[in-house]
């Protein structure tokens, strides 16, 4: 029983960070989420899955989180273009910009109380309290989050030194991670500690024959470089 729940954990970092990402003129979070979609598409042999990204709702009293559904039609179109040998660099950049804009809007909507998942959960709780059964709500809320992702904030204190100071490059904390919420999925935590680094924590269950955290980390690293290369002169 214990072996069934053993977690395969991979921790990885890059030698470049959000400073390079900003040169692409897209948000670092959108950049990384597109890379995650690419990496999973490659890891799974060409599949797209329901993806969870946590968003804060601190604009509201006692606000906690809302869900950003990162796998969209726009992100899928971009990912397919990256694996289409006939797609031009201009086409890929165009589709990336569309996907990044969509992701940024989804994130803003979630932060501003216009996400769907907490609303659906509230309806589910209300139905339970009133003794109603909703096949639709049961179906929606029991679907697996194959990719569960979250960006970890690097500033968690009121007073912190400048993380871009050269002397701190080898002293940055990689933060923490979490396990997968699906038996056949991945739990992915990531952080942009400064302009020159990105940290990833990737977890999966050893009992699953189709997931491999180390393999996914290699794919993710490769995909971030492929997206970055689109903007090389």
From TrEMBL:
<dbReference type="InterPro" id="IPR023213">
    <property type="entry name" value="CAT-like_dom_sf"/>
</dbReference>
<dbReference type="GO" id="GO:0009437">
    <property type="term" value="P:carnitine metabolic process"/>
</dbReference>
<dbReference type="GO" id="GO:0004095">
    <property type="term" value="F:carnitine O-palmitoyltransferase activity"/>
</dbReference>
<feature type="domain" description="Choline/carnitine acyltransferase">
    <location>
        <begin position="13"/>
        <end position="221"/>
    </location>
</feature>
<keyword id="KW-0012">Acyltransferase</keyword>
<keyword id="KW-0472">Membrane</keyword>
<comment type="similarity">
    <text>Belongs to the carnitine/choline acetyltransferase family.</text>
</comment>
<protein>
    <recommendedName>
        <fullName>Choline/carnitine acyltransferase domain-containing protein</fullName>
    </recommendedName>
</protein>
<keyword id="KW-0812">Transmembrane</keyword>
<keyword id="KW-1133">Transmembrane helix</keyword>
<dbReference type="Pfam" id="PF00755">
    <property type="entry name" value="Carn_acyltransf"/>
</dbReference>
<dbReference type="GO" id="GO:0005739">
    <property type="term" value="C:mitochondrion"/>
</dbReference>
<dbReference type="GO" id="GO:0006631">
    <property type="term" value="P:fatty acid metabolic process"/>
</dbReference>
<keyword id="KW-0276">Fatty acid metabolism</keyword>
<keyword id="KW-0808">Transferase</keyword>
<dbReference type="InterPro" id="IPR039551">
    <property type="entry name" value="Cho/carn_acyl_trans"/>
</dbReference>
<keyword id="KW-0443">Lipid metabolism</keyword>
<dbReference type="InterPro" id="IPR000542">
    <property type="entry name" value="Carn_acyl_trans"/>
</dbReference>
<dbReference type="GO" id="GO:0016020">
    <property type="term" value="C:membrane"/>
</dbReference>
């Amino acid at each position: 029983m214990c072996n069934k729940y053993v977690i395969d954990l991979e921790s990885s970092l890059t030698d470049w960070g959000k400073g390079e990402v900003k040169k692409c003129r897209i948000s670092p979070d959108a950049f990384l989420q597109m890379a995650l979609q690419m990496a999973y598409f490659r890891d799974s042999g060409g599949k797209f899955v329901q993806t969870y990204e946590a968003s804060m709702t601190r604009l509201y009293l006692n606000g906690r989180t809302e869900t950003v559904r990162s796998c969209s039609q726009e992100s899928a179109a971009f990912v397919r273009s990256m694996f289409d040998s006939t797609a031009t660099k201009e086409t890929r950049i165009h589709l990336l910009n569309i996907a990044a804009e969509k992701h940024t809007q989804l994130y803003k909507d979630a932060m501003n109380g216009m996400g769907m998942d907490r609303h659906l959960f509230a309806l589910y709780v209300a139905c339970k309290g009133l003794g109603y059964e909703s096949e639709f709500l049961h179906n929606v809320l029991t679907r697996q989050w194959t990719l569960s992702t979250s960006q970890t904030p690097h500033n968690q204190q009121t007073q912190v030194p400048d993380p871009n100071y050269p002397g701190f490059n080898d002293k940055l904390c990689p933060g923490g991670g979490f396990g997968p919420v699906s038996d056949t999925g991945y739990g992915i935590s990531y952080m942009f500690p400064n302009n020159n680094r990105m940290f990833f924590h990737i977890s999966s269950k050893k009992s699953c024959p189709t997931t491999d955290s180390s393999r996914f980390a290699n794919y993710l690293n490769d995909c971030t470089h492929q997206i970055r290369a689109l903007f090389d002169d």
